Amino acid sequence: MPPVLLLAVSLGILAVAAFASVALGARPLSLDTVWQALVNADPANGDHAVVLSRLPRTVSALLIGAALGLAGTALQGMTRNPLADPGIMGLNAGAAFAVVTAIYVFGVTSFTGYVWFALAGTALAALVVYAVASLGREGATPVKLALAGAALTAGLTSLLSAVLVSSQQTLNTFRFWQVGTVSGRGWDVLLPLIPFLAVGAAILLASGRALNGLSLGDDVARGLGQNVALSRGVMAVGVVLLCGAATAAAGPIAFLGLVIPHLVRGLAGPDYRWILVLSAVLAPVLLLVADVVGRLILPPGEVPVGIMTAVIGAPVFIAIIRRRKLAEL
């Protein structure tokens, strides 16, 4: 399928998923009621109020899904590692440990406080992983990056557990964030998020040509006149902004940044200029679908979206790797 047609189809699927997100939930609503609430809302109408209350949650899923899809795609392209993902590379663990530190040491409980710590934790984790993987003559190979990320995740998770065991108050605050959710995210959370996501997305969407060069190998990229170190550094800034802001808002959400780039690569081919755009469109689709399914399977309660993305994403990823060899990008 031509990439332009694939993009059009993806946008159509995204629109359907977004409409389903505001229409479906524990309280059943007719499609006409949902449409009227969106185009001509009556604040005194209880059904309209339910629809309007779901809008921030839907927008949260759109923004966070696009951020994690872009970040995962860029990470895989930068490292030429098919397993690169904010979770596997230690970025989520860095953000989580920084947020726990903010809660335990500084008593921070709001998103506007979380975001700065999450950004710092994500950036520090990225630096540590790259520094450790760079040791030795071969430098930061895909395998060493994955191993360094896994080791850092294990270490930070242990430290995080030690802090949580020693402080019941910190545990109570952190556990609702840790599972990964877009529930309860209002406009007060979304508005501070937008500048970080906008800058990070702009950096990565403009990096398609650089990622195409890196996909050929560092030596070939240098031969084509590309400054490899500068390219990776600029893209790393974009990844940190997207991962840090998204993780601060919704908690660590797995599999989006891992599954979607592989799916898009199989549909659209190896051109990262298209892979980035399509990942930014299809990753929110998976997040929205996971959120809607999580609301419907256990009414009137719900399963957090961080759990549902793993439940839905794991079989999809297994199916992808059974069809393709993903040893290297």
UniProtKB/TrEMBL annotation:
<feature type="transmembrane region" description="Helical">
    <location>
        <begin position="87"/>
        <end position="107"/>
    </location>
</feature>
<comment type="similarity">
    <text>Belongs to the binding-protein-dependent transport system permease family. FecCD subfamily.</text>
</comment>
<keyword id="KW-0812">Transmembrane</keyword>
<dbReference type="Pfam" id="PF01032">
    <property type="entry name" value="FecCD"/>
</dbReference>
<protein>
    <submittedName>
        <fullName>Iron ABC transporter permease</fullName>
    </submittedName>
</protein>
<dbReference type="InterPro" id="IPR037294">
    <property type="entry name" value="ABC_BtuC-like"/>
</dbReference>
<feature type="transmembrane region" description="Helical">
    <location>
        <begin position="305"/>
        <end position="322"/>
    </location>
</feature>
<feature type="transmembrane region" description="Helical">
    <location>
        <begin position="145"/>
        <end position="169"/>
    </location>
</feature>
<feature type="transmembrane region" description="Helical">
    <location>
        <begin position="113"/>
        <end position="133"/>
    </location>
</feature>
<feature type="transmembrane region" description="Helical">
    <location>
        <begin position="189"/>
        <end position="212"/>
    </location>
</feature>
<keyword id="KW-0472">Membrane</keyword>
<feature type="transmembrane region" description="Helical">
    <location>
        <begin position="58"/>
        <end position="75"/>
    </location>
</feature>
<keyword id="KW-0813">Transport</keyword>
<feature type="transmembrane region" description="Helical">
    <location>
        <begin position="233"/>
        <end position="260"/>
    </location>
</feature>
<feature type="transmembrane region" description="Helical">
    <location>
        <begin position="272"/>
        <end position="293"/>
    </location>
</feature>
<dbReference type="InterPro" id="IPR000522">
    <property type="entry name" value="ABC_transptr_permease_BtuC"/>
</dbReference>
<keyword id="KW-1003">Cell membrane</keyword>
<keyword id="KW-1133">Transmembrane helix</keyword>
